[in-house]
Every structure is written in C-alpha cells, then in structure tokens.
What we know:
The chain has helices spanning 35-42, 48-57, 90-95, 102-106, 126-134, 159-169, 175-186, 196-208, 215-224, 228-241, 245-259, 271-291, 299-315, 318-326, 331-340, and strands spanning 3-8, 31-33, 58-60, 70-72, 109-112, 118-121, 141-146.
Amino acid sequence: MKEKYLVPDFYEDFHCKCGDCRRPCCVGWDVTLSMREYFSLLGLSCSPDVRKRLDSALLLEKNGSPERYGLLNKNFFGDCPLHGENGYCLLQCEKGEETLAAVCRVYPRSPKRGKGNECTLSNSCEGVVEELWKKRTPFSFCERELDFPSVEESPEAESALRRTCLERLNGGTSIKESLRELGEQFVWEKEERVDFLPFLKGVASTFSSFSPDVAPYAEVAWHFLKQEEDYRRKAALLFSRLDGLKGALKNLMVNNAFYKRLPAGEEGRGVKEDISAFLLSYMLLEYLLVGNEAAIAGREQAVDLIADAFRLINHTRFEHNALVLMEGKVGALKDFYQKTA
Length: 341
C-alpha cells in the first residue's frame, strides 16, 4: 500500500545503473531473507540454472528470527550467486522484481517511519554519489507516495533540533564550516585539543580491520600522510584538481544527516554523541580521499572511494564504534575542524 514519504529533491532523479555499476551492491554484502522470503525461494518454480544457484546459496541463519531467517550465501569471489555476467540479477530477469528479497528491492532507498515517514538514498551506492556530485542547488524536500515491502519504526530527534542541524548543513557556508559550527555548539565546549592526524590514522586503521571496503584506502593513507603538512598539501591538490568535489561532499553530508535522522539518539545516545560521530564520519571520509590523492585520477575513482566509505558509515554500527574510538579524544575533532575548515 502506498504511503506519503518526505523525500529530498534529487530522489526521483536516481536510477539504478544495473550492468554499468562498477561497485554493484550484489558484491561483498550478504542478502538477508525473512522466513517468508526464504521458503518462497526454496519452493520457487524456475529454470534449472537459477534453481541450482538458489539451492547452493540458501542458508539458514543461526538463531534466526522471522525477520532475519536466512540468507543468500556469497560465492568464492564475494559475489551473489544470482549476479549475472552482464551485471543483472538472474532471478529478477527470469521471475520479476516481486520475487526478490526486500533488501534487494529497496536498496539504496532507506524508508523510515516515526513521527513522520521519510525516505532518502544511501551514499553507499555509486549512482547516488554521482547524482549528488551533479547537484548544484541546496536541498529541498517534498512529499511523494511510495510503496515499500515493510518499514520498521526508527528513532527521531525533536523536530526543531533536527531542523537546526539540517538547515546549518544545507546553508551557504562550506560543509566544514557548517560542521565546525555544529561541533562548537554541541560537542567540544571545553575539550583540550588532540592532534587530529595521529588520531585519524588510528581510527582508519581500526575500522579497516573489519571493513574490507575501507582497508585498501586506509593502508595507502597511512603511508602517505605522515605529518600535517602532508595532509594540507595533498588536500589542496585534491580539491584544486577535482571540480565539484567540495560541493559533492556538502551534498553527501546533508543527505546523510537526513538519512540518519541526525541526531536520532539510537541505542541511548545523546545529541553530543550523535553529532560527534557524524563529525567523525566526515573526517574519516576526507582523510581517505586526501590520503589517496595520488591514486584518484578523476571523478570515478573519488566516487568509488566515497561509496565504499559509506558502506562502513551507513551499514555497520559506525556510531557505536566511533564513540569508543573517540573516548578521551574528542579534542581531535576540535583540532581538525579549527585547523582545516
């Protein structure tokens, strides 16, 4: 059944790249299945080839629930076994979209219910990053009637506070100026500075230990960013070479604030904690871009890195882990934004 959702203005400009995607969502991630989806695929009437692929891939989750009952196991290359050589889903091509798991039908869309229905697109999709790179105007929002398989309730901060955060990020100043202002208002009132570069190197190294998407970029950045002068020099080179990068980063962070319902207060976090983690997400993203400046020949390489970084930021317990890493070191955020904004 269709319901009204508040969406950003670029929402309807997005179209899946399908076989043209360099970093398809079929690769690297498990496809989780509800109980209904699992048994539907188990008994699906389909071609021998698709049947063989399904039978070899369907697995039961240990201690599964009706909502997360099974999954489609990846092959040796980390790819979904139903991902065809032409980039298209063999199951969808043969049986239609309605046979897909909900996660496959919905991604990169992220519908949320709460005080109001909202939906945007995750920055972990390269097609979304490309759309936001092209966007040249501030965000606006409108209502659209959308239909999704199932949508869970999610926390939502008090509307005036959310509006303050979004308006500040979406305003006329640079994204780093806007983030610095949020930090000064909500995060580091009396924090002592901590040198940001050693802190960021440690953060990236820790995250790379369980994020194969981020690990290669973190390793390169570790070797090339030895002191703050290296960071400033490479940042200047990168932003001067890549037309539109500053605008793209601003759009990405505005979109992600809406995506995360900043400050949502999930898992008992307060406003300071949520905004601290949000500030760190930008720091990590810029650190990886700057540290890989020499390998980023053009927009495509930057888009791929950004989408990979948001696989970590948007699809893991990033906020929880970020707060652990920032314990006693919130001053590194202050150091970064006051020195580099």
